[in-house]
């Protein structure tokens, strides 16, 4: 009975996280972690969430392949990969908890404020700043496990339409998560138990991703923006509590 319960909890967490990530492009760990971290130890739950999140990002990239803006995304990714080593150094040499809480409050404040402010008209991102935003995203992602927060806020501030936003931010999030997973593999932080759980959760992962992507394709711009800001608000608050 315990094995059945564990399987159901795992499947529910992975499905919910995959659905939200398929819809919004991020927040898998925030949603799945709210369940898994109560059912598993962090040493099991965190690598599992990272591995599953990479699977969700792969599904997102395939489903949205015609909307991916590779040229702009590559500058984001290049900046992000430069930010990750600095984040790892800060993680081991500074009080990263204070940074996480401060960043969480800023994200929550921004999302809460923007939820009650009328959306700005469609716009485009300023040229030449993607690498800087990517650097910030990689740095913040290494300290908070939220690499997509800064690029997503950047897009929202400039009124980027949902297809363009996902096409720009999705490859960046995938690259940051893959780099983090590679680092965990190099440090041998992934056990056979994690691999076993990934296989068990694969059906829920695929189902949640597919339904999330389907919802993304059928949601209008205004409601998509509310979903994004709502998830930023929740994710920011989770960094504080």
Furnish the topology, listing elements before pairings.
Blueprint: H1 2-24, H2 28-39, H3 42-63, H4 70-93, H5 96-115, H6 130-144, H7 149-157, H8 162-186, H9 192-218, H10 221-240
Unreliable residue stretches: none
Tally of contiguous helical segments: 10
Strands, count: 0
Computed CA radius of gyration, to the nearest angstrom: 17 Å
Order of helices and strands: HHHHHHHHHH
Helix content: over 70%
How would you sum up the global shape?
Answer: globular
- Class from secondary-structure proportions: mainly alpha
Mean pLDDT: 84
The largest β sheet comes out as: none
Q: First CA to last CA: what distance?
A: 32 Å
The proportion of strand residues reads under 5%
In brief:
With 241 residues, the protein is mostly helical.
Written overview of the protein:
The chain is built from 10 helices and no strands. Helix content is 82%, strand content 0%. With 241 residues, it is mostly helical.
What keyword list fits this structure?
241 residues, mainly alpha, 10 helices, 82% helix
